């Protein structure tokens, strides 16, 4: 069984986060400044090298002005999984 970090869903999440940042006209450095993190942090997240925990993800989404529920709905639709509830 492959290591969980190699799960293709993580790559889709990373790509979606990068797309959302670009849609808002932000550079990686802009987002990093908002997060109080180095630019390399954003780069690693967007390349799928670094995963975000739940708290980091909510901070990340808040800095992008993205509703976490909407984000999760997008992830679920990409994963072809039915929404919970």
UniProtKB/TrEMBL annotation:
<dbReference type="Pfam" id="PF01381">
    <property type="entry name" value="HTH_3"/>
</dbReference>
<dbReference type="InterPro" id="IPR001387">
    <property type="entry name" value="Cro/C1-type_HTH"/>
</dbReference>
<dbReference type="GO" id="GO:0003677">
    <property type="term" value="F:DNA binding"/>
</dbReference>
<protein>
    <submittedName>
        <fullName>XRE family transcriptional regulator</fullName>
    </submittedName>
</protein>
<dbReference type="InterPro" id="IPR010982">
    <property type="entry name" value="Lambda_DNA-bd_dom_sf"/>
</dbReference>
<feature type="domain" description="HTH cro/C1-type">
    <location>
        <begin position="17"/>
        <end position="71"/>
    </location>
</feature>
